[in-house]
Specification:
The chain is of the alpha+beta class and 126 residues long. Strands 1-3-2 form a 3-stranded mixed beta sheet. It contains 5 helices and 3 strands; from the N terminus they run βαββαααα. Bound molecules: zinc ion.
């Protein structure tokens, strides 16, 4: 599926000190009635408003490539992609002009998803 760049929803980035971040995760867990186990970043959408809440302490310790991966991944969630692997595939597409970040995400693939990255192209136009 080709992604129309004009339709990409760009979220607002909100950096929170770790304490605040954890407090907000606990509130979100209660609101959603499920445990949200996220200690780096989370995408939240309210109708047409999209936000990425980020743990500032974690973020400050990331290199630029990893920052871009996290933002692209959360941006995928803001664009309606719930599945973690699909969000990473979306991120990989979004980062295709950033070779270092793309390679880093591919290197982390097995750790993130439990198996090696496979470049599967589902867009076969059959
Ligand atoms: Zn995710």
């Amino acid at each position: 599926m080709k992604k129309d760049v004009d339709l990409v929803k760009i979220p607002k980035m909100i950096l929170l000190e770790e304490k605040e971040f954890i407090k907000n995760m606990n509130i979100l867990s209660k609101m959603n009635n499920k445990h949200i186990n996220e200690n780096i970043a989370i995408a939240i959408s309210f109708e047409d408003n999209h936000y990425i809440f980020i743990n500032k302490n974690e973020y400050d310790n990331m290199d630029d490539d990893y920052k871009n991966i996290v933002l692209a991944h959360e941006c995928a969630h803001c664009n309606g992609i719930e599945n973690e692997e699909e969000a990473d595939r979306w991120a990989l597409d979004a980062l295709k002009d950033n070779e270092d970040a793309s390679n880093k995400l591919i290197d982390m693939w097995e750790h993130r998803h439990g198996y090696e990255y496979l470049n599967v192209n589902f867009d076969l136009h059959l």
